[in-house]
Design goal:
- The chain has 416 residues and is of the alpha/beta class.
- The strands form 2 sheets. The chain has an 8-stranded parallel β-barrel with strand order 1-2-3-7-8-9-10-11, surrounded by 6 helices.
- It is built from 14 helices and 11 strands.
- The chain is 32% helix and 12% strand.
- The chain is globular, with a radius of gyration of 20 Å.
- It has a single domain (12-28, 43-147, 178-217, 226-407), classed as Glycosidases (TIM Barrel).
- It has helices spanning 12-15, 66-82, 109-112, 123-133, 161-164, 183-199, 224-230, 237-259, 291-295, 299-305, 326-337, 367-375, 389-394, 399-407; strands at residues 45-50, 87-93, 137-142, 146-148, 169-172, 175-178, 204-207, 264-267, 310-311, 343-348, 381-386.
- Residues 1-28 form the signal peptide.
Length: 416
């Protein structure tokens, strides 16, 4: 659960041990690193997320000049090349806004500090061009339903669709969201995202882990009216909500393929579909959040139905963590995609490496490299993506350098 878009400051479900661990849970001691990963001939994805919401990664602050913003962006791309990565996943629709001149939504405030203000350049267009010039794929990362990290519609620019259609919007957990239960909302958010697909030579559409919002204790997502109007054919509200999310995924997939068949569609969900104690098909975990139940996102179904081209589960836990062991989740996801033809890339928590608030395993620079060692034993794994760009650049304890030295000795192409 991320407070500002994908993975910024409070990462409660995915990022804090408290959301997962129970009293007495032990953390496994770091193991010696011995294995080396050999790149498959088919290629592998080596990606980095560049988060723009709340200026997490880029731009480093709102209100920089266009030249300074461009220089920072190119620096992130150059760093990716230096580390022999081959893909960047750039957040271009962080809060129902845009990092391109969209006819549907206002310019993102994270560029100029003022929502709707033209930054004087086209960040997405520049990113696509400059990434491709460097041999990098550009995956455009969209958040479908989040409108704002506050609950005051008057703070949105006057022409914002959420102000023009207040009936589309619900407050929850201190934020504003579009209501996924409204067909007109699903159509609108698809139109807004597809504009970038048709306008730019992006390599993929990428979604993060936000569908219905992460649960907030004591609060209710007030979609009673939409449920009364559209939910009569479902056994309960949860089933209706899951169908709403399924529809968004399936419809978007169809529209991407119709518009540009070569553009891939990938989703990066929270790493636990369901715990085995909840569902025998689930993973051997005791996670505090389950995407199926809490986010109404049946991520396993999307793989089995072939609605998406790749899945990139956020396995943001260390090897040996009792509540959500990386070494148990990795084979679960490998088994889930086996035989489906869906790509599996693993989301890696570089931001935890060297964070004193994290378990002992994350103080070891070799922890992430061991993740890739484990993945080498599962041919279904087609690569890894690191959160996030500022951590790739800073590399607090050399964990990224260790990954590169152990596994990325030569550049490779992405799997296609």
């Amino acid at each position: 659960m991320r407070r500002f878009g994908r993975r910024a400051f409070v990462l409660s479900a995915a990022g804090t041990v408290a959301a997962l661990m129970t009293a007495g849970d032990a953390v496994a001691a770091p193991r010696r690193h011995t294995a080396r990963r050999h790149t498959a001939a088919a290629g592998e994805l080596r990606g980095v997320w560049i988060s723009t919401v709340a200026n997490v990664d880029w731009p480093s602050a709102p209100g920089l000049t266009a030249a300074a913003q461009q220089a920072e962006l190119l620096d992130h791309l150059d760093r990716a090349v230096e580390l022999r990565l081959n893909a960047v996943i750039l957040q271009v629709r962080p809060t129902a806004d845009a990092l391109w001149p969209s006819p549907y939504e206002p310019w993102a405030q994270y560029l100029t500090g003022v929502q709707g203000k033209d930054p004087g350049w086209d960040p997405l267009g520049t990113a696509v061009r400059e990434a491709h010039a460097r041999g990098l794929e550009l995956h455009a990362w969209f958040n479908p339903y989040r409108v704002a990290n506050h609950t005051d519609p008057s703070r949105l620019v006057a022409t914002h669709p959420a102000r023009l259609h207040p009936e589309w919007v619900l407050p929850y957990g201190g934020k504003l969201y579009y209501n996924p239960g409204l067909p007109e909302v699903r159509t609108f958010v698809q139109d807004a995202m597809l504009d970038a697909v048709t306008r730019y030579d992006i390599d993929a559409v990428h979604w993060d882990d936000y569908f219905y919002p992460y649960p907030v204790a004591g609060q209710v997502f007030a979609d009673d009216d939409a449920y009364a109007r559209y939910g009569a054919d479902f056994p309960n509200r949860a089933a209706w909500r899951r169908d709403n999310t399924d529809r968004l995924v399936r419809e978007t997939a169809d529209r991407i393929k119709a518009a540009k068949p070569g553009v891939r569609f990938g989703i990066s969900p929270f790493g636990v579909w369901r715990n085995a104690a909840t569902d025998p098909l689930g993973s051997d975990t005791r996670a505090g959040v389950q995407t199926y139940d809490d986010l109404h996102a049946d991520t396993r179904k999307w793989v089995k139905e072939g609605w998406i081209d790749y899945i990139c589960p956020q396995l943001y836990w260390n090897i040996g963590l009792a509540a959500a062991d990386y070494a148990k989740l990795l084979p679960w996801w490998a088994e889930t995609v086996r035989g489906t033809g869906i790509g599996l890339y693993v989301g890696e928590a570089l931001h935890k490496a060297g964070d004193p608030a994290q378990p002992a395993a994350w103080q070891d620079p070799a922890e992430l490299s061991r993740h890739l060692d484990l993945a080498a034993g599962h041919p279904e794994v087609g690569g890894h993506v690191y959160f996030s760009a500022k951590h790739v650049k800073a590399d607090r304890i050399g964990a990224m350098a260790r990954v590169v030295a152990d596994h990325y000795q030569v550049r490779v192409r992405t799997p296609r």
